[in-house]
Design brief:
By secondary structure, the protein is an alpha+beta fold. It is built from five helices and twelve strands. It has a seven-stranded antiparallel β-sheet with strand order 6-2-3-4-12-11-10, with helices on both faces. A five-stranded antiparallel β-sheet has the order 5-1-7-8-9, with helices on one face. A hairpin with a 4-residue loop joins strand 8 and strand 9. The termini are far apart.
């Protein structure tokens, strides 16, 4: 059994749940995963275009474990947050279930999904984080921007290289947003747009005056 601080479960879920795969995308990973390891509880989700990993310190001597929840378990997880989040929460992986309990004795048991085909998020994050390249252009799809709105400020973002993932860092959080590949015409148009925002030369300013 492990224990996390009050108002922590709501934070790590709100920061990662928006990155679950869309229910209309049959190829997307439509799960949120809890992982206890190295004295932390990690929560992560990905939709193939973004990856979000949040963490919090956890007290307990459990061996490392995973707990994978699909969309059908989200109402139960939301109920656990409403019932238990105001106080420290104990979590226990028991067979195919995750048991969440509070100091008052209230508890919710959530049935888990198969965890055998999970992405190794550490390898993905390490590969992106080791090669920051802020000067490289990076094209992103703005429809995913809202998924980051629950992060605490300040947030830092950089490119990990041309046509590589954008890396997003906040307190106890790391995320990736995959780039899109614009056509050469679109890329050139965006470059011209950027150039149009550059300050005018002093001579041009003088002439305008």
């Amino acid at each position: 059994m492990i224990t996390i601080a009050d108002r922590t479960l709501s934070r790590i879920v709100s920061q990662t749940k928006p990155h679950m795969g869309d229910r209309n995308d049959s190829e997307a990973v439509q799960v949120i995963t809890f992982e206890f390891a190295d004295g932390h509880l990690y929560t992560w989700a990905t939709n193939r275009y973004t990856l979000a990993v949040a963490r919090t310190q956890a007290k307990g001597d459990d061996k490392p474990w995973l707990a994978v929840m699909g969309r059908q378990q989200m109402p139960e997880l939301a109920a656990a947050i409403r019932l238990l989040d105001a106080k420290p929460i104990s979590m226990e992986r028991n067979g195919d279930h995750l048991i969440l309990s509070g100091e008052s004795g209230s508890r919710i048991t959530i049935e888990l999904q198969d965890d055998r085909q999970l992405l190794d998020w550490r390898k993905v994050v390490a590969a992106a984080a080791e090669r920051p390249s802020a000067a490289k252009p990076m094209a992103l799809d703005p429809k995913f921007f809202a998924a980051w709105k629950s992060l605490p400020g300040p947030v830092q973002m950089w490119s990990s290289g041309e046509q590589k993932a954008g890396v997003i860092i906040a307190a106890d959080f790391i995320g990736l947003q995959m780039p899109i590949n614009p056509s050469p015409e679109a890329a050139n148009s965006l470059r011209r747009e950027l150039d149009s925002w550059k300050p005018a030369e002093p001579a041009s300013l003088a002439a305008a005056a």
